[in-house]
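Assess the record.
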Amino acid sequence: MPRKPDVSCVFVCHDGHGRILLARRSAGARDEPGAWDCGAGAIEFGESFEEAVTREVTEEYSTAPLSIDLRGVRNVLRDDPPSHWVAVIFAVRVDPAAVRIGEPHKFDDLGWFTPSGLPSPLHSQLPATLALARPS
């Protein structure tokens, strides 16, 4: 049976004042443990984009979005591990005081960063996502 691409919502959370929220991937993450990344998750059957983003932001950061802005779409093909995702990219404003790690099995640290002061190492997919999603 032929494989089909999965669809994900990828979200760069921001505080509305130029800082973005990144999470460091823990040893239990699916790929690139130790890398800093934005949030993401599969869109479930029947969900709107906004419902998927709200669910995923709430699961990962223990708070609901204050605003959700669609920024673009990426076709993500990876060899290791083999995967194909259609990533729908969003900029999402959240309340920094309310953010917590909601999935400690996936992330072990959170941080607020300016675009010129990003941590290292970054997840391999993050630069292309940031190019689309940076809040204006």
